[in-house]
Specification:
Helix content is 48%, strand content 14%. It is of the alpha/beta class. Helix 8 links the parallel strand 6 and strand 7.
Length: 419
Amino acid sequence: MAPPESQDRPVKLFAIAGENSGDIHAGNLFKALFRQDPDIRAYGLGGPRMAEAGVKLKANIVEDLAIIGFVGVITNFPEIRRLFYNTIHFLEKFRPDVLVLIDYPGFNIRIAQKARKMGIPVVWYISPQIWAWHRSRLYTLARVVDRMIVIFPFEVNLYKEEGVDVVHVGHPLFDVIKVDLTREQVCAEFGLDPNRPLIGLVPGSRRKEVTQFLPIMLEGAKRYREIDPSAQFVIVQASTIGDDMIRESIDKAALDFTPVVAPRLRYSIRSSCDFSWVKSGTSTLEAAILGTPMLIVYRVNSVTWLIGKQVFTIGHIGLPNIVAGDRIVPELLQDEFTPRNLAEKTHHYLSNREEYARMVADLQEVKERLGGEGASDRAAQAILEVVARNRTNGQQAPADTLPDSADDLFSPANRKSPK
């Protein structure tokens, strides 16, 4: 699609992504946007992938403000509040053609409400999981979003029923996942034996997750080695997690073997695993696309868990299970997420060929439902269509007086307070 008529003014976008996975998808989205219109001016809140794509970050909230659960919000409230009002002030000055919001509903819905009052069009990419919890958010989103870009086919009717302009583009993970090496090549690269079982540990991309989950996983690895001493373990290290954090957990575990740490070639090594223990979230869909059988694990503090149980509306939290509409992958949550359960359930699948093959087949069906490559390009086109539509209708954002650097708006000296 050709870029919209600029009338001597480039397209202006502001984007917000607050999670590591959202940052990855936002980075690919903006690469696609710049391919379609190289003159776009883009600012935002996000992480390193957005910055690499060409977005001028006003704050790195992916690395500096990773929040888990209700308690995490309370703990970080002063910083969240400051960020919120600085962002509103920036939007008032910048006046983007479109505000692009990527998931992160707790913060982004409130930003969308303010943007709507300012007459700034809002496009949401990757819908909040309203089909799982907080369904009431659907009605709020219907009031404040000009276009919803969804990644799951079953989400389309939810928004159509509320009169929302909705576009399905498929899952952007297909634009992210690249497997470059065979199992034999991976094992040679990391000093592993391709003839021995390989189990992957995927503890997450947030520091708090890793500090809580990795010790349980390592104790589970110790227990599994009692069942099968030939088993090998690899820790998949997210780009947001430092070496020291991983090493500290390994040292405290006092293992009689050394797990491999993989900070690179993550998809190649995950595709080479016979089985994985995966933190609930996007990583579970990655495992489904890679075809790796797994256990889905998660644990939060009791307050967050009790609140979550009140608003969660479906029977499972694992995304592959939600897409499949059935419990095709075991979920070890809260008190069930134990070293003993990790070891015993993994042994059940690795020693039972029929059960193992059934999970592989079920994951293949999930992969097929998720679509194929090109989601980022289709999402970029959907955003530029909104810009073009508004300009055709005479709804152009006014020219701003914002200097191109605009760093002063987010400096400590200019922190905004509620009016």
